[in-house]
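I would like you to help me understand the sequence and C-alpha cells below and explain how sequence relates to structure.
___
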Amino acid sequence: MLEAYPQNRLARIVLWSFAALVMAFLMLPTLVVVPLSFSASNLLEFPPHAYSLRWYENFFGSATWMAALRTSLILGTLTALIAVPFALLACISMNRLGGKSAASIQGVLLTPSVTPGILLAIGLFFVLAAQRLVGTLFGVLVGHVVLAVPVACIVLLPALARFDWNQVQAARSLGADWARAIGEIIVPQLRLSLLSATLMAFLTSLDESVISIFVASGRNSTMPKLMFISLRDQIDPTIAAISTLWTAIVVVVVVIVALRQKSLPSRKS
C-alpha cells in the first residue's frame, strides 16, 4: 500500500503514522499485562508499586497449571497435524470440481467459522456426550479441529487457485497416482502456504476457550479454560503471568515460522 505513493513524502508519513497508531492500539492492552505479571501485590495493580517473580513461581509450581499447559500444547500440535492435511485435500477437491459442487463443499467447511462459538460448543457437547467423549482429549481435539479446518482452508484456497495444475496432469499421465502427485508436486510448491496454515491452525487451538469450557474437564482441561475459571473465582497476578507467557509462546512460534519461511526458496504458492 505504501509503495503506491513513491513521490509523495507527506502521504507516506501519514500512512506510516496511521499504521503505527493502529499497531499501538492493538499492542498496548497486551503490553500492559507484562508489568502486571511482575507485581508483588496480591491484586492486579498498574503500575506495580513493587516487583516480584512470585506469580511465575506460583504458575510453574502448580501441577494443575502445568497439566493444562501440556494439554494445550499437545492439542495445538495434534490439531495442526490433522486439520492442515484435511484442509489441503478439501481445497484440492474444491479446485478440481469447481462450480456448485465446490461452492457447496466450501460452504460446509466454512460453516464453523461463521457459527457463533457458543452454539457450536453446545452442539458439539451433545454430539460428544452421546458418544461418551465429553472430558476426553479426543473429544476436545475434535472440537479444535472443527474450528481449525476453516482457518486452514482460507489460507490454502488462494494458493491452490494460483497453482499450475499442468504439472500434476503431466505427472498423472506418466503413471503417478494422486498420493504421489500431492506429496511430490503440490506439497513442495505450497510449503509456504502450508506452513502458514499450520501456524494458524496451531494458534486457533491454542487460543480456543468456548469449546474447551463445554467439552474439556479434569486433567484434559486447557489453559484458556483454567484461565477463565480462575478469573471467575479469584483474580490475582498469576493470570497476568500466564498471559505474558502465553503471548511469549505465540510470538516465538510466529517468529520461528517467519524465519522458516525466509529460509525456504522463494516460489509462488
